[in-house]
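Our preliminary data section would be incomplete without showing what the modeling component actually yields. Below, a chain of 327 amino acids is followed by its predicted structure, encoded as tokens that our downstream tools consume directly.
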Amino acid sequence: FDINILTFSYWDFKEKMSFFLLDNGKLTRLKCQAAWAHRMCQMTELVLFQITVLGTPAEESGGGKIDLIQAGAFADIDLVFMAHPAQRDTAIFVLHRVAVKYRGKASHASAYPWEGINALDAAVLAYNNLSLLRQQLKPDWRLHGEKQNIQNLKPNIIPAYSELEYFLRTPLLSELNNLKAKAEACFRAAGEATGCQVSTLLSSDYIRHPYFNILPNSTLENLYESNGKALGMEFPEQPGICNYLAGSTDFGNVSFVMPGIHPFFYIGTDALNHTEEYTEAAGAEKAQLHTLRTAKALAMTAVDVVCCPELLQRVRDNFRQAKLEQK
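Predicted structure:
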């Protein structure tokens, strides 16, 4: 039977090489993907299959994989694999970006304060509303942002314009609308209390698409964990590959289109991603050993599925069931 397996190759075409090296040890991930594809070619010479190594823009900013989905780049793909270096196995959040703009009226803060409508007050109230909201949020929901673009920042002028940017994250896509409604109420209450006009934007140059959570696939997860353990990898005792809280990725959107797996792998350091210490650790010999081992575990998982039509059917059944449970 024919099967097409996809692995991602990372490159952010908008970013310079220096940022590429500093961002999450992604050079380590590239080595993992190259080794994975090579290992697959070595292990399955007698089975008819196709491996696609697809170059994609940055997962954390541009949402390039979502553009590729819309362009039909995944039309002939059966399975998708991607691995990311980290300190431990982690979960992926749904990500939604919102920008809120408050428009008021400038006035002299001493001579005619009653003539003004304070947009900075609206931003402060919204920030406080959201901070108070956190005590009622689920433990695995995230809400974080910043104030920006405050006009007329002079002590004697009431600001006529302010803007907030917030990221909303939930583990499941089905939970995101609930969090969005709560946040929206906080934003609008601040505008009503101050008399400011409120407008919200749901896209930006940084996050152009909402990011989905990664759909679980128990068959692929169990195969990967079994193969990883055979190679000496250690996994947390909790069920599944993804158990801890982390960031967001457009791979989640891909996982709603086809079955896939996105494990995170330890590279031998406790340094945090997005730091110079992690960049240095990613280049160490120890990190290469962890990376190659992960590539082998992914290749072995793909071989299991390629060589067993029953496993492929279970993977597809898991995929369909996971999509139904998200509704």
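Residues 173-194 form the longest helix (22 residues). The longest strand covers residues 94-103. Preliminary results of this kind motivate Aim 1 of the renewal.
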